Amino acid sequence: MSMLINMNITPDPQLEDSYFSKLASSFISLSKEITTKKNYSPFMDFDGANGVGALAIEKLLPRLGQTLLLTLHNADTASPNKLNKECGADYVKTNVAAPKGFEPTPNKRIVSVDGDADRVIYSYVDSQKQFHLFDGDRIASLVAGYLMEMVKESGLDLRLGLVQTAYANGNSTKYITETMKIPVTFTSTGVKHLHHKALEYDIGVYFEANGHGTVVFSNNARNLVLQAMNDEKLDETKRRVILRLKQVMEVINSTVGDAISDMLLVETVLKTRGWSMEDWEAAYQDLPSRLMKVPCQGQKRDRDSGCRSKVFQTRWSTERD
């Protein structure tokens, strides 16, 4: 949808309706299966970056009923100069700060998308006004762990892996490989590289630290899920798990980074686990890091790094050599 709007093409209302209905119905179906919410709360603030993500949420929200109770902020899409200005996923990630435009409620999670709604970042501000960031690495580990559990419980012979770049936080990699026992592959920065590498798995999870990513499923994975659904000999426990996996696949937009579907995927996992933001944060502790933009005066910008290699170069850590 964001691509169509950026190209000044009016989206087909029927396609939009089908898209939002599919996302909402799959998310609601998954939510109905969860009986114990524990520390999870459906209340959240949505930072629309004054872009198309705000428009999408306005159309999706009525379809979600009480399953997700969003308060929309930064939704002024009529003022181009406000797009991503002191708000949105890029601002939150780069500045390690809550978006402007509203006063954060202590311990209430904030979901920030960027202007064209292909990145998503989570955050919250605690009762001591301390800011907490949950970037693409956090999202990737959360999603990969959830999917791996379903793969194991289903008994399906599926190879799941996670793809990261050199920008990934080292402790996220350690947690994924050592605690969750999920294989991690590293590739160059840029979604095109991550997506291509993720296709080597039956279920490939990839998220850049900036919140851009998704999950891809091979034809083999989709076929095995459908075959298992039609297997009359399959026991009921495994059948329920496989049905849940199928519904999760329907929530995910595998073709492109889609912040709205990524958000619903994260909410599904948090609700299933019964986690608050504090619970999610306790999974592992990030190594200290800071994302900065390096000026490229007089240089031709590189699409992946932002600068020529002689100006700025990313190196693998010693743990990854």
UniProtKB/TrEMBL annotation:
One record GO biological process: UDP-N-acetylglucosamine biosynthetic process
Residue ranges constituting the Phosphoacetylglucosamine mutase AMG1 domain according to the UniProt record: 16-121, 135-275
Domain of life: Eukaryota
Molecular function GO terms recorded: phosphoacetylglucosamine mutase activity
InterPro entries (UniProt xref): A-D-PHexomutase_a/b/a-I/II/III, AMG1_II, AMG1_III
PANTHER family: PHOSPHOACETYLGLUCOSAMINE MUTASE
Protein name listed in UniProt: Phosphoacetylglucosamine mutase
Organism: Lygus hesperus
